[in-house]
Design goal:
Blueprint: H1 6-12, H2 16-19, H3 31-46, H4 50-66, H5 68-75, H6 81-94, H7 99-110, H8 117-132, E1 134-141, H9 147-158, E2 166-173, E3 181-185, E4 188-191, H10 194-208
Parallel strand pairs: 1-2
Antiparallel strand pairs: 1-3, 3-4
Helix pairs in contact: 3-8, 4-8, 6-7
InterPro entries: ATP_synth_OSCP/delta_N_sf (IPR026015), ATPase_OSCP/d_CS (IPR020781), ATPase_OSCP/dsu (IPR000711)
GO cellular component, one term: membrane
Organism: Capitella teleta (Polychaete worm)
Amino acid sequence: MAAPRITGVVRQLSTSASRSHLVQAPIQLFGVEGRYAHALYSAATKQKSLQSVEKELNSFKDILKVDTKFNQFVKDPTIKRGTKSEVLLASLQKQKFSPITTNFLCAMAENGRLGKVTGIISAFDQIMAAFRGDVICSVTTAKAMDAKTQKDVEATVKLFLKKGENLLLTSKVDPALIGGMVVEIGDRFVDLSIASKVKKYSSVITEAI
Protein backbone atom coordinates (compact mmCIF):
# COMPACT_ATOMS: atom_id res chain seq x y z
CA MET A 1 0.00 0.00 0.00
CA ALA A 2 1.35 3.38 -0.97
CA ALA A 3 2.21 5.82 1.77
CA PRO A 4 -0.19 8.80 2.07
CA ARG A 5 1.00 12.15 0.77
CA ILE A 6 2.05 14.10 3.84
CA THR A 7 1.16 17.43 2.21
CA GLY A 8 -2.52 16.63 2.48
CA VAL A 9 -2.16 15.35 6.03
CA VAL A 10 -0.48 18.58 7.13
CA ARG A 11 -3.23 20.64 5.52
CA GLN A 12 -5.81 18.64 7.47
CA LEU A 13 -4.45 20.18 10.66
CA SER A 14 -5.99 23.54 9.74
CA THR A 15 -9.51 22.56 10.80
CA SER A 16 -10.78 20.91 13.97
CA ALA A 17 -12.96 18.52 11.92
CA SER A 18 -9.94 17.25 9.98
CA ARG A 19 -7.80 17.00 13.12
CA SER A 20 -10.30 14.51 14.54
CA HIS A 21 -9.28 12.05 11.79
CA LEU A 22 -5.61 12.12 12.81
CA VAL A 23 -4.12 9.60 15.20
CA GLN A 24 -3.73 11.34 18.56
CA ALA A 25 -0.09 11.78 19.57
CA PRO A 26 0.92 11.04 23.20
CA ILE A 27 1.94 14.68 23.68
CA GLN A 28 0.75 17.92 22.09
CA LEU A 29 3.33 20.10 20.34
CA PHE A 30 2.72 23.44 18.69
CA GLY A 31 4.05 25.66 15.91
CA VAL A 32 5.20 24.56 12.46
CA GLU A 33 7.44 21.90 13.99
CA GLY A 34 4.57 20.47 16.01
CA ARG A 35 2.13 20.42 13.08
CA TYR A 36 4.50 18.54 10.79
CA ALA A 37 5.61 16.15 13.53
CA HIS A 38 1.97 15.36 14.42
CA ALA A 39 1.07 14.82 10.76
CA LEU A 40 3.96 12.40 10.29
CA TYR A 41 3.19 10.57 13.54
CA SER A 42 -0.40 10.05 12.41
CA ALA A 43 0.58 8.85 8.93
CA ALA A 44 3.36 6.58 10.23
CA THR A 45 1.07 5.08 12.87
CA LYS A 46 -1.51 4.19 10.24
CA GLN A 47 1.26 2.65 8.12
CA LYS A 48 2.67 0.81 11.17
CA SER A 49 6.09 2.27 10.42
CA LEU A 50 6.86 4.53 13.39
CA GLN A 51 10.21 2.96 14.25
CA SER A 52 11.49 2.87 10.67
CA VAL A 53 10.45 6.49 10.06
CA GLU A 54 12.15 7.58 13.27
CA LYS A 55 15.35 5.79 12.23
CA GLU A 56 15.31 7.34 8.75
CA LEU A 57 14.68 10.86 10.04
CA ASN A 58 17.62 10.61 12.40
CA SER A 59 19.77 9.22 9.58
CA PHE A 60 18.78 12.26 7.53
CA LYS A 61 19.70 14.53 10.45
CA ASP A 62 23.10 12.82 10.69
CA ILE A 63 23.66 13.37 6.96
CA LEU A 64 22.99 17.09 7.40
CA LYS A 65 25.60 17.22 10.17
CA VAL A 66 28.28 15.52 8.07
CA ASP A 67 27.57 16.90 4.58
CA THR A 68 27.79 20.68 4.91
CA LYS A 69 27.12 21.34 1.21
CA PHE A 70 23.95 19.25 1.28
CA ASN A 71 22.92 20.98 4.50
CA GLN A 72 23.35 24.38 2.86
CA PHE A 73 21.37 23.23 -0.19
CA VAL A 74 18.52 21.90 1.93
CA LYS A 75 18.22 25.09 3.97
CA ASP A 76 18.89 27.64 1.20
CA PRO A 77 15.62 29.64 0.76
CA THR A 78 16.74 31.04 -2.62
CA ILE A 79 16.61 27.66 -4.38
CA LYS A 80 13.31 26.99 -6.13
CA ARG A 81 11.06 24.59 -4.24
CA GLY A 82 10.55 22.36 -7.27
CA THR A 83 14.29 22.04 -7.85
CA LYS A 84 14.93 21.30 -4.21
CA SER A 85 12.17 18.68 -4.13
CA GLU A 86 13.51 16.90 -7.24
CA VAL A 87 17.11 16.77 -5.97
CA LEU A 88 15.93 15.62 -2.55
CA LEU A 89 13.73 12.91 -4.06
CA ALA A 90 16.64 11.50 -6.07
CA SER A 91 18.90 11.54 -3.01
CA LEU A 92 16.38 9.82 -0.73
CA GLN A 93 15.54 7.16 -3.31
CA LYS A 94 19.24 6.46 -3.78
CA GLN A 95 19.53 5.88 -0.04
CA LYS A 96 16.43 3.65 -0.16
CA PHE A 97 14.37 5.72 2.27
CA SER A 98 10.80 4.47 2.67
CA PRO A 99 8.02 6.14 0.65
CA ILE A 100 6.46 7.72 3.73
CA THR A 101 9.69 9.41 4.87
CA THR A 102 10.52 10.42 1.31
CA ASN A 103 7.04 11.90 0.79
CA PHE A 104 7.29 13.76 4.08
CA LEU A 105 10.63 15.40 3.35
CA CYS A 106 9.66 16.22 -0.24
CA ALA A 107 6.40 17.74 1.00
CA MET A 108 8.46 19.95 3.28
CA ALA A 109 10.55 21.01 0.28
CA GLU A 110 7.42 21.79 -1.75
CA ASN A 111 6.02 23.85 1.14
CA GLY A 112 9.27 25.73 1.72
CA ARG A 113 9.72 24.25 5.19
CA LEU A 114 13.02 22.37 4.84
CA GLY A 115 14.77 25.15 6.75
CA LYS A 116 12.92 23.88 9.81
CA VAL A 117 13.68 20.21 9.22
CA THR A 118 16.01 19.84 12.23
CA GLY A 119 13.40 21.27 14.59
CA ILE A 120 10.67 19.11 13.06
CA ILE A 121 12.78 15.97 13.49
CA SER A 122 13.43 16.96 17.12
CA ALA A 123 9.68 17.41 17.63
CA PHE A 124 9.03 13.96 16.15
CA ASP A 125 11.70 12.53 18.47
CA GLN A 126 9.86 14.08 21.43
CA ILE A 127 6.61 12.45 20.35
CA MET A 128 8.34 9.09 19.93
CA ALA A 129 9.99 9.41 23.35
CA ALA A 130 6.56 10.01 24.90
CA PHE A 131 5.16 7.09 22.89
CA ARG A 132 7.76 4.77 24.44
CA GLY A 133 7.34 6.26 27.91
CA ASP A 134 10.79 7.85 27.80
CA VAL A 135 11.46 10.97 29.84
CA ILE A 136 14.25 13.10 28.43
CA CYS A 137 16.41 14.75 31.06
CA SER A 138 19.07 17.25 30.04
CA VAL A 139 21.74 18.17 32.58
CA THR A 140 24.03 21.13 31.93
CA THR A 141 27.11 21.58 34.11
CA ALA A 142 30.07 23.96 34.20
CA LYS A 143 32.43 21.02 33.56
CA ALA A 144 31.92 17.44 32.47
CA MET A 145 30.41 15.17 35.13
CA ASP A 146 32.41 12.20 36.34
CA ALA A 147 30.81 8.75 36.42
CA LYS A 148 29.82 8.98 40.09
CA THR A 149 28.16 12.38 39.73
CA GLN A 150 26.20 11.24 36.68
CA LYS A 151 25.08 8.11 38.50
CA ASP A 152 23.92 10.19 41.48
CA VAL A 153 22.02 12.58 39.20
CA GLU A 154 20.31 9.67 37.42
CA ALA A 155 19.29 8.12 40.74
CA THR A 156 17.85 11.42 41.96
CA VAL A 157 15.93 12.17 38.76
CA LYS A 158 14.43 8.66 38.67
CA LEU A 159 12.67 9.44 41.95
CA PHE A 160 10.45 11.88 40.05
CA LEU A 161 9.47 9.44 37.28
CA LYS A 162 6.12 7.73 37.11
CA LYS A 163 5.75 3.97 36.92
CA GLY A 164 6.59 2.70 33.43
CA GLU A 165 8.63 5.76 32.45
CA ASN A 166 12.22 5.36 31.25
CA LEU A 167 14.94 7.93 31.82
CA LEU A 168 17.04 9.21 28.91
CA LEU A 169 19.78 11.37 30.38
CA THR A 170 21.86 13.69 28.22
CA SER A 171 24.57 16.01 29.46
CA LYS A 172 26.33 19.07 28.11
CA VAL A 173 28.91 21.54 29.37
CA ASP A 174 28.49 25.31 29.73
CA PRO A 175 31.42 27.02 31.52
CA ALA A 176 29.26 30.13 31.98
CA LEU A 177 27.38 28.33 34.77
CA ILE A 178 30.54 28.62 36.94
CA GLY A 179 29.38 25.67 39.05
CA GLY A 180 26.31 23.63 39.97
CA MET A 181 23.93 22.48 37.24
CA VAL A 182 20.79 23.18 35.25
CA VAL A 183 18.36 20.25 34.99
CA GLU A 184 15.55 19.98 32.44
CA ILE A 185 13.13 17.07 32.90
CA GLY A 186 10.51 17.07 30.18
CA ASP A 187 8.93 20.51 30.44
CA ARG A 188 10.28 21.12 33.95
CA PHE A 189 13.30 23.34 34.47
CA VAL A 190 15.46 23.59 37.60
CA ASP A 191 18.36 26.05 37.73
CA LEU A 192 20.84 25.01 40.42
CA SER A 193 23.81 26.82 38.90
CA ILE A 194 26.08 29.17 40.80
CA ALA A 195 25.68 31.70 37.98
CA SER A 196 21.95 31.98 38.63
CA LYS A 197 22.58 32.48 42.34
CA VAL A 198 25.16 35.18 41.64
CA LYS A 199 22.70 36.90 39.32
CA LYS A 200 19.97 36.69 41.95
CA TYR A 201 22.16 38.14 44.69
CA SER A 202 23.47 40.85 42.36
CA SER A 203 19.88 41.82 41.60
CA VAL A 204 19.03 41.99 45.30
CA ILE A 205 22.09 44.16 46.01
CA THR A 206 21.31 46.47 43.07
CA GLU A 207 17.72 46.91 44.17
CA ALA A 208 18.85 47.67 47.72
CA ILE A 209 21.22 50.37 46.46
